[in-house]
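Recall from the previous lesson that a structure prediction takes nothing but the amino acid sequence as input. Here we apply that procedure to RASF3 protein from Spizaetus tyrannus. The sequence below is the only information supplied.
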Amino acid sequence: KDVQKEREPHVCLSKEEVKEKIQSYNSSVTDKLKMTLNANGIYTGFIKVQMELCRPITVQSSQSQGRCAHSNNETAFYLPDGCVNTLHISSTNTVREVIEALLKKFFVADNPAKFALYKRCHKEDQVYTCKLSDREHPLYLRLVAGPRTEMLSFVLREHETGEVMWEAFSIPELQNFLRILDKEENEQLQILRKRYAAYRDKLEEALGGVWKPG
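The prediction returns the following tokens.
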């Protein structure tokens, strides 16, 4: 189970320290996703973000695939579980910019304010998660942690239920979500009815066996 952890302070690195860390980072990379230090001190590299979205995202109908519910020219689309996206970013890119870039890659029309980027760290057999602030720099975190995703990984999620900015949703989006909830509720009811019908059949079969004349 994930454990919430307070945000670690950002440590300013000198250009020489950044250069040394990038050299160390690149020497440990196994997937060819190396970092590059530019003459102006800005460095570029790659981060992988796992998409853990429970609610549907709104995309253009022509870009949608999978389970969906249509509404005019837009589609409420569920991303596959465990979907991972790789982004090429720079050390100046903030969390907010990374979220916007992810949504753009998936042709998502939803307001970026609905989403949050988390870092997930593995330490001492525990999994710690921490929601990143909009002003933090993911590539810096990747550089400091090194390339191993089991030590640090990034996850995109919706804001927690109590934090949802409902004013960021349009009326058609909210109506579409209600239709999806109704559909899911009906599906769950059908599953429950079939499950209990199966139980009933087994009980009646068992009772028939008990009372059956020897």
